[in-house]
Automatic annotation (TrEMBL):
One of its GO terms (molecular function) is DNA binding. Gene3D superfamilies: 3.90.1150.30. Keywords: DNA-binding. This is MmcQ/YjbR family DNA-binding protein. It comes from the Bacteria. Pfam families: YjbR. The lineage of its organism: Bacteria, Bacillati, Actinomycetota, Actinomycetes, Kitasatosporales. It comes from Streptomyces prunicolor.
Length: 119
């Protein structure tokens, strides 16, 4: 997955936006103001921080040792840093991004979740 493909995929979700609250180099993808992905698109290797269910986070870190690690500068129980440099299947990276988005949406107030479902 290229940096452009990662960016486009993050922005493909309903109400997703890209913001730069930290530095002009750090893309923060949010849904209704809540972060679901954080990356430096020019990073080498390309990585992305993603929210994850704590049990899944541990399993993924064990299964993909060195490619999925505890979230850099994040709550390590709920966030993973995922290498997006071709060693992991693109399908898996897409699933992890989607899971992160879904976890954040699930934590939104009901009224905001319902607003996302409207066309």
């Amino acid at each position: 997955m290229t940096p452009g493909e990662l960016r486009d995929f993050c922005l493909s979700f309903n109400a997703a936006v890209e913001d730069f609250p930290f530095t002009p180099d750090t893309s923060v993808f949010k849904v209704l103001g809540k972060l679901f992905a954080l990356t430096r698109l020019d990073g080498s290797p390309l990585t992305v921080n993603l929210k994850c269910d704590p049990e899944d986070a541990i399993r993924l870190r064990e299964e993909y040792e060195g490619l999925i690690i505890p979230g850099y500068h994040m709550n390590k129980r709920h966030w993973n840093t995922v290498r997006v440099d071709g060693e992991l299947p693109d399908r898996l990276v897409r699933e992890l991004v989607e899971d992160s988005y879904d976890l954040v949406v699930a934590g939104l107030p009901r009224a905001e979740r319902l607003r996302l479902d409207r066309p």
